């Protein structure tokens, strides 16, 4: 059963695997919603459980190895007691079809939704949540297993992308590549980022807000989606996280909303780094440059689902260009 299967087929599969019971389904207590991420993951909510269903994409051969990498990563991380309750639990594996089913504790919701949908600038308990997320990244980066390959993010090669990218890039995504190649600031910035790359720890590889689940009542945090887990520069995970308010600032058409994202960029970063280092720690300029690379990657991913590049995406690319041109100024003007 590949990604894109109908929800009723997936629920039937989960019943066959004893992940769900027939009583769960008949009682009407099962809901299925799409989650953001590669391989079209689905969130299945059943009573006090949240179940994450992932299956390979039939048209993308690379999706199956990613799912296998994720399962291996979670097995390794489960050995570390410091991450108990902070990563999903594997409850069912179908190795023949590379289907993965994970579960989390009750009461969790997507962190991105909490921050985006709030009517206030700072949701209750937000900074406590951010510090806990920083500590989770710290614990994750302290684990080690030599079986994982050294991963260089593909976006850091976008000014001269490998040919394998093109068959899976639509016209809008190829236009993003062209814009990056034609920009001296973006091309030079990506080259510098590659030069600064220090693969010194195991990293999540995709620590964007959408890959965090939060429990507003307990403050608990769970990080999901370990498909790109591997040996990398740990600053890449920090950059993925703190690029989010900057990217949303660029995408915003509302000045007041834009002010909110700038405020969050300025105020969340010290909290994340304090949780990560157990003490106040300044951000470095290389991580700021990685933020720009993350913004480019998100624009490329968005373009894959569009027929053209939106004006918001163009603003995001312009922001990335500004960051790459002078990351020191961005470091002092926004993050300090």
In a nutshell, what does this entry contain?
Helices cover about 50% and strands about 10% of the residues.
Structural account:
It is a single chain. With about 325 residues, the chain is an alpha+beta fold. The chain folds into two domains: about 5-105, Phosphorylase Kinase, domain 1 (2-Layer Sandwich); about 110-335, Aminoglycoside phosphotransferase (APH), C-terminal lobe (Aminoglycoside 3'-phosphotransferase, Chain: A, domain 2, Alpha-Beta Complex). About 50% of the residues lie in helices and about 10% in strands. The protein has helices at about 5-15, 20-25, 65-80, 110-115, 125-140, 170-180, 185-195, 235-250, 255-275, 285-305, 310-325, 325-335, and strands spanning about 30-35, 40-45, 50-55, 90-95, 100-105, 110, 200-205, 210-215, 220-225, 230. The strands form three sheets. A five-stranded antiparallel sheet has the order 1-2-3-5-4, sandwiched between helices. It has a three-stranded antiparallel sheet with strand order 6-8-9. A hairpin with a 4-residue loop joins strand 4 (about 90-95) and strand 5. It is globular, with a radius of gyration of 20 Å.
Biggest sheet details: 5 strands, antiparallel
Might you state the CATH topology name of the largest domain? Aminoglycoside 3'-phosphotransferase, Chain: A, domain 2
Q: What is the averaged pLDDT score?
A: 87
Provide the β-strand percentage band.
5-15%
Write the element-wise H/E pattern from the N-terminal end onward. HHEEEHEEEHHHHEEEEHHHHH
CATH architecture of the largest domain: Alpha-Beta Complex
CATH level 4 superfamily of the largest domain: Aminoglycoside phosphotransferase (APH), C-terminal lobe
Number of domains: 2
Rg, Cα atoms, Å: 20 Å
- Count the DSSP helices: 12
- Helicity range: 40-55%
């Amino acid at each position: 059963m590949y990604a894109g299967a109908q929800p009723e087929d997936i629920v039937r599969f989960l019943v066959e695997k004893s992940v769900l019971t027939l009583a769960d389904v008949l009682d009407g207590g099962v809901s299925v919603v799409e989650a953001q991420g590669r391989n079209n993951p689905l969130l299945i909510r059943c009573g006090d459980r949240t179940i994450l269903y992932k299956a390979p994409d039939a048209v993308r051969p690379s999706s199956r190895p990613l799912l296998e990498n994720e399962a291996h990563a979670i097995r390794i991380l489960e050995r570390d007691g410091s991450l108990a309750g902070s990563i999903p639990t594997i409850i069912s594996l179908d190795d023949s079809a590379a289907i993965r089913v994970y579960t989390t504790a009750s009461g969790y919701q997507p962190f991105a939704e909490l921050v985006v949908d709030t009517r206030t600038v700072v949701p209750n308990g937000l900074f406590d949540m951010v510090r806990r997320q920083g500590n989770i990244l710290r614990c994750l980066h302290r684990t080690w297993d030599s079986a994982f390959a050294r991963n260089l993010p593909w976006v850091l090669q976008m000014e001269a992308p490998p040919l394998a990218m093109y068959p899976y890039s639509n016209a809008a995504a190829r236009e993003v590549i062209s814009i990056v190649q034609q920009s001296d600031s973006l091309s030079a910035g990506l080259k510098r980022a590659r030069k600064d790359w220090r693969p010194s720890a195991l990293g999540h590889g995709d620590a964007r807000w959408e890959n965090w689940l939060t429990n507003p009542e307990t403050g608990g945090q769970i990080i999901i989606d370990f498909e790109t887990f591997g040996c990398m520069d740990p600053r890449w995970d920090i950059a993925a996280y703190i690029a989010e308010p900057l990217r949303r600032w660029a995408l915003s058409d509302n000045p007041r909303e834009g002010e909110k994202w700038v405020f969050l960029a300025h105020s969340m970063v010290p909290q994340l780094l304090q949780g990560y280092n157990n003490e106040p720690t300044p951000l470095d300029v290389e991580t700021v440059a990685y933020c720009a690379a993350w913004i480019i990657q998100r624009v490329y991913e968005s373009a894959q689902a569009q027929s053209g590049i939106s004006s918001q995406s163009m603003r995001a690319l312009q922001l990335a260009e500004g960051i790459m041109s002078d990351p020191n100024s961005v470091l002092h003007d926004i993050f300090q």
